[in-house]
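Table 4 source record.
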Amino acid sequence: MHRPQRSRLSPYRRLFSKLAVHRRSGVTDAALGTLLAFIAGAINAGGFIAIGKYTSHMTGIISAVADDIALGVFGAAGIGVLLFVAFTAGAGCSAILINWGRRNYRARQYAYPLFVEAVLLLGFGAAGLLQPALFVAVAAPLLCFIMGLQNATITKISGARVRTTHVTGMVTDIGIELGKLVYVGRDHGPGRPRVVANLARLSIHGRMVAMFFVGGIVGAIGFGHLGFGFSAPLAALLIGVVSPVILSRR
């Protein structure tokens, strides 16, 4: 009797096909967070090569706004405020898409904001190639919007355990867990709970910071050589993540 042939997909391809599904696990959260950290690093560093601004971290932008106001450079301060508003709007857009998807197409709720991010990256590349002189004025706010969209999406997916553009927070968590690791076993006794490092959290944040760094190198080289067109392969990665979910008939 002929038996139906089982899927020959490798474990890595099976995991990749499940990165945007609505039923989450620690493995899929960590894998998606790592991939998005790579993309965030590429956009942040590559965006600086393309338009001369970092767009993923609001700490530096808000500090720059404060400096510009103190120095009386109100035009530059206004640009910083615009970048802050764009990042916030991107985060809000992610929440709207996920909550709408949860009510209407639950299985695709996390795929929608990632798909929108891919479309915006393609638009960023196309507009930059076709109309570079006109596009420069809106390029930085658009990248900030994309970064806010991505950061809020992984925050919602992981239950606020992972944030891909907030490297300061990840490095802080790494320092906390390393401190626990060094401290373990000391002052342990009755009424003194043992201090235990969360090695899983340390590993996840360590990998994400490393991938943000690697993404930064790749993005800087890619945007440096290909210009705005390098956003296309980054968008393709996101489309590869969401297409198994969006195209599924289940």
